Amino acid sequence: MHEMSLCEGILQIIQTEAKAQQFNKVKRVVLDIGVLSGVEIPALEFSFEVVMRGSIAEQAELQINEIPAQAWCMQCADSVTVKQRYDACPECGSYQLQVSSGDEMKIKELEVD
Ligand SMILES: [Zn+2]
Hints:
The protein starts with a helix and ends with a strand. It is elongated and about 50 Å long. It has helices at about 1-20, 40-50; strands spanning about 25-35, 60-65, 70-75, 80, 95-100, 105-110. The chain has a single domain (about 1-110), classed as hypothetical protein PF0899 fold (2-Layer Sandwich). The longest helix has 20 residues, at about 1-20. The strands form two sheets. The protein has a three-stranded mixed sheet, covered by helices on one side. Strands 4-3-5 form a three-stranded antiparallel sheet, with no helix packed on it. By secondary structure, it is an alpha+beta fold. It binds zinc ion.
């Protein structure tokens, strides 16, 4: 499962950070998840709970920011917001879009003790 390995990656980052910054408890994890990343939020929440169990982030509250995707529309010569990769331009209906963001998956913030 995609979400499971994503959470394992997050845990690795947390453990590395914990060593570097010498904290031993994570209170809150804020994630930026692009709408084009293919991540399912309920699956991500479930995986987070499973993967963090027994770790320093076991009690951590998970907050997920869904980041809208940006694309460049050739017709409008402007940047527009899209909800899916093969969406038409919401302004002019053109399919000549170049998606420029929306597939990010990253830790935005770690609140630690
Ligand atoms: Zn357009």
